[in-house]
Amino acid sequence: MTGTWVLYLPHIKTKFALNDGQIGMALFSLALGLLLSIPFIPYINKKIGVGRSTKVGVLLYALSFNLPLLAPNYVMLCSSLLLTGILSGFTDVSMNALVSTIEKKDDKHFMSAAHGFFSLGGFLGAGIGSILITFFEEPAWHMMTISAFIVLSNWYLSSSYDTIKEVTSPKIKQENTFKNIRPLLGLSIIGFIIMFNEGAVEHWSNLFLFDVVQVQENQAGFGFIAFSFCMTVGRFLGDGISKRIGAFNIINGGAAIAFVGYLLIVSTNLYLSVLGFGILGLGLSVVIPEIFRLAGQTKGVPASVGISLVSGIGFAGFLIGPVLLGFISNGAGLTWSFIFLAFSILLALCLVFLELRKHNESA
After folding, report:
1. Is 165 left (phi over 0), alpha (psi -120 to 50) or beta?
2. Domain with residues 2-362, CATH architecture
3. What does the alpha-carbon distance between residue 97 and residue 332 come to, in Å, rounded to a whole number?
4. Domain locations in the chain?
5. Model's pTM, two decimal places?
6. 219 Cβ contact list (under 8 Å, min separation 6)
7. pLDDT tens digits, one per residue of 306-352
8. Are 35 and 181 in contact (CB under 8 A)?
């Protein structure tokens, strides 16, 4: 769904004659929906189970993403993105809590691989979509086709996970205090910066190639395709690397690689920029899965609560990022927006060093 949606951002921009600031405000609606859903998710997960929440979330999310492309005006576009954001946040947190629960129950290590399948979906959605976009005169028909596939496939596959519930105990409830949640705050800030960057690339990479590098509309998805492909590879390899070098070291290395990717992107050469998006995807690929894994394994805190806290602060990056980049782009251009993102990665690197030192001191 996401890979298909980002292909049509240039179409949305042209359809409603929007400037970058207005695009940013529309994406603000999507992110606001994500943030608004966060406080209610642990309650719903507890009430109906993380498995059923995931099943319902995926089905409703797939249906809701048809609405933005059917919107007749800018106000309806923003309203439909708000609803899509609410369902996206609900689905995202529930699914990550489900993976964390299975990891604990079965003593498995696959959070990064699970995120890898999300990136694989983005790669396939944007890659195949770049071909299909020439066959669909109406973007809404393209999105409906993808939506129908996701609804049917998830309905079939959900029988293997929809009965899973989190394991809770009175002891965990009693210990669920600020003292237990405090270690999550550092992770949350790093998550904020990384998700700020992921959301920016997801929604602005097409427009960067379209407006700055000045490619044709059917080539504007190349950056996101490279980003998603390399992120997929990185996430499938991430679990094994994490076992060998540890979560904080892999987060640190990933942020450093991401910074190199930005240096290539802002060259504004088509080939270097696309390569840069790929390197950026490889670097960012391992960070959020590791942060969610650490959050879901925090002692005294249920997985859905820990992941909700980290996700909530992280999604605030989605909330601020699209708007801020839109205003920077309006004032100084998209190139400076991506330079700003590069410096935010440097800030994340500094924070990772501090968290790693605290982790080593407490070990």
Report:
1. beta
2. Up-down Bundle (1.20)
3. 40
4. 2-362
5. 0.74
6. 130, 209
7. 777 887 788 778 667 767 887 888 788 888 999 999 999 999 888 88
8. no
